[in-house]
Every structure is written in C-alpha cells, then in structure tokens.
Amino acid sequence: MNETLPGLDEDELGNQIQEIGRRAVSRLAVLTGAGISTASGLPDFRGPHGVWTYDPAREQDTHRKRYAADPSVRARLWRDLAASGMADARPGAAHRALARLRASIATQNVDGLHQAAGSPVDQVHELHGNLSMARRTQCRRPAPMVDALRAVRAGVGEPPCPACRTGRLRPDAVLFGEHPNRDVHGRAANAVRAAGLLLVIGTSLRVRPAADLCTAAIECGVGLVIVNAEPTPYDDVASVVLRGDVEVVVPQLVTALVAGGTPTR
Ligand SMILES: [Zn+2]
In this structure, are 229 and 261 located in the same domain? Predict the structure, then answer.
C-alpha cells in the first residue's frame, strides 16, 4: 500500500497523519538524520542544498583514509566543525515532539539534540557517535570538544592532546570507512524488530548501516513511515511517505500517535 504523494496538499497530509495516528502501536522505533537538525541551524549533507551536494570533495574528506593521510584535510574538517555552530545548537520542534514519546530513537546525527530535547540517554542510539567529545589518537582518552574547538578558533590546525602533547585529537564520531559501534547498531536493530512502527525522519537513507534498519523493519513486517523533504530509496517499500517540512509534520504526527494510544514517557 504505497502512498507516495508528491505535491501533497495540506488536507491530504493531515488525513494521512490522522490515519497513521489510528494505528495504535505499543512500541515505536524512530530513525533520524540530518534533516531533523537543519531547523536548529546545522548543515545537512546530501539534500538539494547539502554541504556534500555542493562540494562532493568535502564528503571524501570525512573518509578515514583521507583523514589519516593528509594534515590539511584534518585541519579543514576541524575548521568546518568549529564553524558548524554545533556547540550552540538547540533542539527544534521535531526533537521536542519526539521527546514526548516512549520510543527507541536511532540517529545518524552526532549533535546530541535528542538528548538535549529530553529524550532519555538510554533510548537514543547514536549510530555515528557524538561530537560532544574528541578523542586522543595516541593515548586514546576522551577530551571535551569545547576545548578542542577553542584551540581551532585560536588558529591551531589540529588540536593537540592536552595530556601527552605528542598526540592529536580527532572527533569522537564515526568517519566514512570506519565501522559504526556494533553494540549501538545492534540495540537499535533489536528495537526496530520489536516495534510496531518505524518512523524515519529527515534522512536520505543512502548511508548503511543506518538504512539497514529500514530493511530490518520490512523483513519483520514492521510498518515503515518516512518523513523527508526528498525521495529516498525506500519510498517504494514504505507504508506511507509524508513529503513535507519535518518541523511541521513531526509535531502533528506525534500528536496523532499520542491520540491513537502510542505511549508517552
Ligand atoms: Zn594523549
């Protein structure tokens, strides 16, 4: 029952949201991507105005081999991080709406905004890590990201490890070519398989293994609802596709789900 409706008008969108709300689910799983954080002023990467759409070389900069091989790549990534505004970002309406629900939230984002909105830490599975910390490449101990970014803003290309001085810091998030934490992904996948519905929000679903969560949902007969401004490779197999502004659609969807009996926290 594919209901992909490009150019959906407001009434149709509202009807679809009400229809989803009527499917009372005791267990809800959510997968989010950069599209939920653009309203918080953070960049998206693969959308029509995404960082990597404009500058594909930038995407290659986040590959672990390029990062390891080239100090200028590392310095540029650190400069981008310092300029990203991540440290000052606040949760948006969609983050806050999702925090009302008792749901497992898997996220590709590294901005910590689900937790900042009030979603419990043990319900948020950060598939690509979190950028609140940096990591020392030599002694491997964590270091606060704010200190690293302060050094970058002061003109340091690649912040040094504050403990051993010989090592350099790297972001404590997953780079392309690195394996996401298997335990985190496993917990997210288990929650999807046990759910009655998987809500996918603001992701192009072009990065594995995050997109594999959709495959797991399909295989286990879990309903798949996609909210994204652009088409995704999973639209054809989704139960419903809501093509709209995440900040508008998600709060309405959450209200409808709660009215339909989906548990709140
Ligand atoms: Zn060190």
Answer: yes
Q: What is the domain range of residue 57? A: 43-84+131-173
Distance 147 CA to ligand 1 centre (A): 14
What CATH number is attached to the domain comprising 71? 3.30.1600.10
Q: How many CA atoms lie within 13 A of 105 on its CB side?
A: 31
Give the model confidence (pLDDT) of 177-210 as tens digits.
888 888 999 999 999 999 999 999 999 898 877 8
Residue 55 CB burial class (10 angstroms; 0-12, 13-18, ≥19):
exposed
Q: What does pTM read for this prediction? A: 0.86
Annotation marks residue 128 as catalytic: yes
pLDDT for position 52: 65
* Domain termination site, one of 120, 141, 173: 173
What's the number of domains the chain is made of? 2
Number of H helices, E strands in the chain: 11, 9
If you average pLDDT over every residue of the chain, what do you get? 87
Which of 95, 114, 128, 185 is catalytic? The answer is: 128
Ligand 1: centre distance to CA 227 (Å): 42
